[in-house]
Amino acid sequence: MKGLDFDFLKFDVTSAVDIVLVALLIYYVYTLIRNTLAVNLLVGMLIIAIFYHIVDALHMKLLTMIIEKFMSVGIIALIVIFHPEIRRFLLLIGKNAFLQKNKAWWGYLFGRKEIERNNLTRIKPIIDACKTMKKTRTGALIVFVKFYDEQFFANSCEVVEAKISKRLLESIFQKNSPLHDGAVVISENKIKSASCILPLTDNDQLPSQFGLRHRAGIGVSETTDAVAVIISEETGEISYAKQGRVRMNVSFGELEKLLNKDF
């Protein structure tokens, strides 16, 4: 029809790439905020936006002006409210998390099976220590980070800088050890620090039996690229936290596979 422009309906390769990129962006944002308080915050912001359009349509000038003032600082509010999620999203991009997740495939292409076997050798002392601590019901929190942020950890940790060993991990988490409270941080194939005080998660949907150790492990996985192995002092059960989500009652076979993938 004359006067109508249907150019926006044209579909080409660029449009397909555009749609795929937007879909990936939405997917990654969803994975970052799923099962976190950010979902409730987004719902609240959506309700405010709908309410604004209603009062504007009803010509409620005073209420409309108040909401407009509130929404005018929306970008700053978003940055403050979603700081942990924004940090994790930037880490996801800057540290090639997507490629890390698929490193088994890339390793197959570029012949890195020998590196994976060596990685299993490095993981063995950690698995052996977890077996002992599970048996003795020794509470433990072991955090693995790909990139050690000295500013983030140094202020609340005792620097160790030691080779990973079964006996050292067991001795750190013994109840009479001065370092048993807090977390051990492992990076670059070393025990970097111990007795670390970590931020607790704000997730209010967690099981009631989760104590400070579980909440700290989940919290650090929300705000950084870290993964955490948590051993319950009450039951000896092993949990695995990553990206704010926790897998409970992990077997040693599963733990080995998870650490080989993420560590």
UniProtKB/TrEMBL annotation:
Superkingdom of origin: Bacteria
GO molecular-function term, one example from the UniProt record: diadenylate cyclase activity
Gene3D superfamilies: DNA integrity scanning protein, DisA, N-terminal domain
EC number in record: 2.7.7.85
Keyword terms of this UniProt record: ATP-binding, Cell membrane, Membrane, Nucleotide-binding, Nucleotidyltransferase, Transferase, Transmembrane, Transmembrane helix
Residues passing through the membrane, by range: 13-30, 37-55, 61-82
Cross-referenced InterPro entries: C-di-AMP_synthase (IPR014046), CdaA (IPR034701), CdaA_N (IPR045585), DisA (IPR050338), DNA_integrity_DisA_N_sf (IPR036888), DNA_integrity_scan_DisA_N (IPR003390)
Reaction(s) this enzyme catalyzes, per UniProt: 2 ATP = 3',3'-c-di-AMP + 2 diphosphate
GO biological process terms held by the UniProt record: cAMP biosynthetic process
Start and end residues of each DAC domain: 83-252
Annotated HAMAP family: DacA
Subunit composition and interactions: Probably a homodimer.
Functional summary from the UniProt entry: Catalyzes the condensation of 2 ATP molecules into cyclic di-AMP (c-di-AMP), a second messenger used to regulate differing processes in different bacteria.
Protein family membership: Belongs to the adenylate cyclase family. DacA/CdaA subfamily.
Protein name, UniProt field: Diadenylate cyclase
Lineage of producing organism: Bacteria, Pseudomonadati, Bacteroidota, Sphingobacteriia, Sphingobacteriales
Gene: dacA
